[in-house]
């Protein structure tokens, strides 16, 4: 039933770092940080999925509507990826995957 | 309450939206979080004005 379906949001984030980063490293570190911040239960409740979209240091995370603020905060707490100083910021949020791609990936 | 990144180098700086989310996660109402972000500007203004402040009701306007 559509009313019981989990409502999702796509968060587009950008990783600012001096050397260009590998998506695998970024994904690992983001998962680790979100797990640390949200906890096992919170991570499960948030339904976080780091999508394989990666273009010019920008990526996408899918989460449920209620956990958007928690996930954004978790992203802001990332300081290092593989001993390299980084700055992770959220560019935008959308309810639709294609809109998120067109607006924030291609436009931004 | 004042919300800010209080960064010492460029890598510690945080964007406005992320600080807002942090405030909301702490339990603030979104409007409260916005006010807290603006508070630092008001504090700076107050500090600037205090330089010329002598006592209640008196301040140096021009030298």
UniProtKB/TrEMBL annotation, chain A:
Key words of the record: tRNA processing
Is tRNA processing set as a keyword in this record?
yes
Which Gene Ontology BP annotations are present?
Answer: tRNA 5'-leader removal
User: What's in the GO CC field?
Assistant: ribonuclease P complex
What Pfam families does this protein's entry cite? RNase_P_Rpp14
User: HAMAP family of this UniProt entry?
Assistant: RNase_P_2
This one is known as: Uncharacterized protein
From TrEMBL, chain B:
Name under which the protein is recorded: Uncharacterized protein
What organism does the UniProt record list as the source? marine sediment metagenome
Gene3D superfamilies from the entry? Answer: Metal-dependent hydrolases
């Amino acid at each position: 039933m559509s009313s019981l379906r989990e409502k999702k949001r796509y968060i587009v984030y950008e990783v600012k770092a001096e050397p260009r980063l590998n998506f695998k490293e970024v994904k690992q570190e983001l998962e680790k940080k979100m797990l640390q911040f949200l906890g096992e239960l919170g991570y499960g409740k948030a339904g976080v999925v780091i999508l394989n979209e990666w273009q010019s240091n920008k990526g996408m995370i899918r989460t449920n509507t209620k956990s958007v603020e928690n996930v954004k905060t978790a992203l802001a707490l990332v300081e290092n990826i593989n001993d390299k100083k980084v700055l992770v910021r959220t560019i935008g949020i959308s309810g639709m995957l294609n809109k998120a791609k067109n607006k924030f990936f291609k436009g931004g | 309450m004042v919300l800010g990144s209080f960064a010492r180098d460029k890598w510690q700086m945080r964007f406005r939206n992320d600080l807002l989310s942090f405030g909301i996660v702490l339990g603030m109402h979104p409007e409260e979080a916005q006010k807290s972000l603006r508070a630092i500007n008001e504090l700076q203004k107050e500090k600037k004005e205090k330089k010329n402040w002598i006592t209640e009701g008196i301040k140096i306007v021009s030298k």
